[in-house]
Amino acid sequence: MVVLSILSTGVLAIEMPNDELAPKFGALQSFSPPQRIHSVIVAETGFYPDSIMLFKGERLKLFVTGTTLQPSCLMIPSKEIFLAAEKGIITEGEVSFDQIGVYEFFCPSKRNIKGKIVVIEKKAQTDKIKREVASKNKVNQPWYPKDDPGLLE
Questions:
Q1: In what order do the strands lie in the sheet with 59-66?
Q2: Of 26, 77, 100, 106, which has the fewest Cβ atoms less than 10 A away?
Q3: 35 bridge partner residues
Q4: CATH number for the domain that contains residue 116
Q5: Does pTM surpass 0.85?
Q6: What is the pLDDT along the chain (153 residues), one digit of tens a residue?
């Protein structure tokens, strides 16, 4: 709770609360893993989108809906996820991927449609390639007009 008080000089002062839950300087903090959000539409012709890409360790939040009155779903058997896809209703679920690889999702009632979740390793910041500046002169020796005989004619 923030306390407002007026000093004798007429200046408004704000007194900040002593919050014991606030992190202390230099204290270790734990953060939740990043979350990626995707919507998937289940139709007669397939999943839209049928391919989702994310990094290892990310949480995936899925919002699933259908386009027809026929029963359909989205299942990820390796993660024990089942989300019903009904027309006009949005179902949501969350799953995390700690291993790289390709994970399939499908619907048993629609045997001909499948999708995949591709989990890749995120490169560390030190793996970036150092790029040269295009305008930077890469020649060590300066150029003079006398070096080019075509200019002196």
A1: 46-48, 35-43, 59-66, 91-96
A2: 26
A3: 59
A4: 2.60.40.420
A5: no
A6: 444 455 555 555 555 555 555 666 667 777 777 889 999 999 988 999 999 999 998 999 999 999 988 889 999 988 889 999 999 999 999 999 999 999 999 988 877 789 999 999 987 766 566 666 666 656 566 666 666 666 555
